[in-house]
Amino acid sequence: MTRTPLLVELDEATLAAQRQRAATWLATLASLQTGYRQLLGRTVPLVGDPQVRTWLTELHDAARRHEAAVDEIAAGLDVRPAAPHRLTALTGAVLGLGRELAGQVQGLLAGGSGAAWRDLRQLTLSNLDSMSAFAVAEQLGLALGRPRAVDVAFRVVSEKSAHQLLLREVFLEFAADAVLHRRDV
Amino acid sequence: MTLPTVAASPEALQQLPTPARPRLDPADVLLPAGYRAEVVLAGLSMPCGMGVDDEGTVYVLEGGSTWPTRPHLPGRILRLRPDGTLDALGEEPLGGPRHIALRDGSAYVSAKGGHQSRIVRYDLADGRGTTIVDGLPDGGWHEPGGPVFGPDGLMYFGQGSVSQNGVVLPQGYVVDLARHQRVHDVPGVDVTLTGNDVVTHDPTAPYPFYATTGAFKPFGVPAEPGEVVRGRLKCSSGIWRAHPDGSGMELLAWGVRNPYGMVFAEDGELYVTDNDYEENGDRAIANDPDRVWRIDAARTPHGQVGTPAWYGFPDLCGDGLPVWHESHRPSRGRPAEQLIADPLPEWAGPAVWLEEPHSALCGLDVSRSDAFGMRGLLFVAEWGTLAPMNSPRAEDLDHGFRVVAVDPTTGSAEPFMTNRHPGPASAHRSGGIERPVDVTAAPDGSLYVLDFGVSTVDPSKHLSYGHTGVLWRVVRDGSGEAS
User: Fold this and answer.
1) CATH of the domain at A77
2) How many domains does chain A have?
3) Quick check: is A92 in a domain?
4) Given an 8 Å threshold on Cβ–Cβ distance, is B19 in contact with A8?
5) Does A144 reside within a domain?
6) What is the pLDDT at residue B480?
7) Chain B closest-CA separation from residue A92 CA (Å)
């Protein structure tokens, strides 16, 4: 007896529903990455240390590339981003602003005086958040059997992991200056 | 709960909606003359084990968290009935189900769990599960084996080692250290330690601080020379048996590194597959063969095994040579030193059969059918290598990715189910097999082969894709035989 082969959860209705959920996540990802990139853009001019400014400028360039990578991931997942980019960017800006305001308040409460150093604290959180969102997209690509999306997301997560080390390092390196000596980066 | 399925024509199998595995074609699978492969299920997510009952219902276990642990997908016990309906008997939480045995209206399922593995008995009528064995040490790396039922009506099962190579080190997945920070190997008998601790870096620290770790110790905890570690019934790398309700648990053997596959053959012997050490990291071991053990202690009457037999972990390789022997000296990583002080326990080898390193022997079954042929041979699934991650040797890159037929009486083997080219089908864009993980001889005289799906390895990453697992069925119908 020959059995008819069955495809498990690969019917169009199941796949369409999963693609829609993935698209919603990509909208979240786009907003988080946009917020991170915008916060970087505002921080760079505040930084006085030339080496740190160079580092953050490089991170800003990379952040633009990573923002564009969301479309590549969407194509790899065979989905369209759930929201137009303008709306996504606006959402990201709002999120970034909210995060920035929270950071200012928390940074001031913690005793840090410099605006750039307080932004560095927020950048560590914002990069971690957006990096995790890319890592989630990687998991979606793995779960749905889509290597193209995985390849792009993996590359971005790798770069942002290195960026996270740099952000944390600079933030901590200048911490005593900011808190004890009331100086900025 | 019935799962959505769609019948697939041969043309549909050529255009699957999973780019990681875009096509399946039984014609790309090589078998001996007279045998033919067909696809039964496709789109499975990280399947790890299976069983078939007397009525022809096929049970397939999707693994949950597997190799690597991400992404976790539902660890379901799927049930494919002869009429083609597919539902889930149950679902195991994090870690997921691995193997299943069907007996007297129940399904006995081993589950990897979080820190400890267990066996759960499911009532096939209502799907309710009851844990009957729990607390087997599990560090997230190696796997439960069994359960299988012996001719004595007892339940036999195993659990692999916690560490990869005898000491808990960060050279596996760092996530294992994160998830299981206090786990460690446990010996099956009292052992005295040499104190040959391993110094390595600590990836859980903010900076790469050094950490010193001893055998049978959690990461970062050293051992002292001459220190005695007490053996426990619930050890790691163990093989046990118990009554079907979990009572009367008895340790038969320990030192079996990863006893993934277990089967009783028609000769009444218990055969167990086992995987070799890794050639990487700060306790690296080269050229350790994969192997099939015969567990002689299974012939001893229940309750009368005094000292459990020792199969070598963590100090002997599958060939019986010590891990520090010149033939096992690594070309990458730091050479291994002796962990258990002399005299080592008596070795229970030799193995019934030795296979190339990193073939990754998994599930096995025995042909009990004259119609299928090759009666008495062990059909062993070879999941395939993780090189270059666990071996720097070019010759290890293609090992595995097939099913072999092993004659336990002679220690010889022949390939049974392969691709046209060595390696997984995806490496050659064929529609053949990827990573065989289990084999089950069905009562109807066919042989089911469970294919884990696409799992790629390169020097920087190991990735496994959902919805790429396949259940194959091999039948003997005279295909390709000369008339």
Assistant:
1) 1.20.1260.10
2) 1
3) yes
4) no
5) yes
6) 72
7) 27
Any domain includes A25:
yes
- φ, ψ of residue B175 to 5 degrees: the values are -60, -30
Domain that includes residue A160, residue range: 18-180
**Nearest to B270, CA basis, from B146, B107, B372:** B146
Q: Smallest Cα–Cα separation from B122: which of B65, B61, B74?
A: B61
List CB contacts of A140: < 8 A, sequence separation 6 or more: A22, A25, A77, A149, B71
Q: Using a CB–CB cutoff of 8 Å, tell me whether A139 touches chain B.
A: yes
Interface test with A, best of B467, B471, B475, B479 (most A CBs within 10 A): B467
The tens-digit pLDDT sequence of chain B (483 residues) is: 899 999 999 999 999 999 999 999 999 999 999 999 999 999 999 999 999 999 999 999 999 999 999 999 999 999 999 999 999 999 999 889 999 999 999 999 999 987 899 999 999 999 999 999 999 998 777 999 999 999 999 999 999 999 999 999 988 777 778 888 889 999 999 999 999 999 999 988 887 789 999 999 999 999 999 999 999 999 999 999 999 999 999 999 999 999 999 999 999 999 999 999 999 999 999 999 999 999 999 999 999 999 999 999 999 999 999 999 999 999 999 999 999 999 999 999 999 999 999 999 999 999 999 999 999 999 999 999 999 999 999 999 999 999 999 999 999 999 999 999 999 999 999 999 999 999 999 999 999 999 999 999 998 899 999 999 999 999 999 877 765
Give chain B's contact residues with A (Cβ, < 8 Å).
Answer: 3-8, 12-13, 16-21, 24, 38-45, 70-71, 73, 78, 80, 84, 86, 444, 454, 461, 463-468, 473, 475
Q: Which residue has the tokens 């093989």?
A: B239
Question: Which residue is listed with tokens 């022809």?
Answer: B56
Q: Per the CB < 8 Å rule, is B20 touching A13?
A: no
For residue A5, give the nearest of B13, B70, B463 by CB distance: B13
Q: Report the C-alpha gap between B472 and B474 in whole angstroms.
A: 7
Note whether A148 contacts B: Cβ–Cβ < 8 A. yes
Contact B473 A144 (CB under 8 A): no
A5 domain residue, yes or no: no
Q: Which of A134, A142, A164 to mutate to test the interface with B (most CBs of B within 10 A)?
A: A142
What is the Cα–Cα distance from B148 to B108, expressed in whole angstroms?
9
CB pairs under 8 A between A and B: 107
Give the list of residues 6+ apart from residue B9 with CB closer than 8 angstroms, or none: none
Residue A148 distance to chain B (closest CA, Å): 8
Using CA atoms, how far apart are residues B199 and B193, in angstroms rounded to an integer? 16
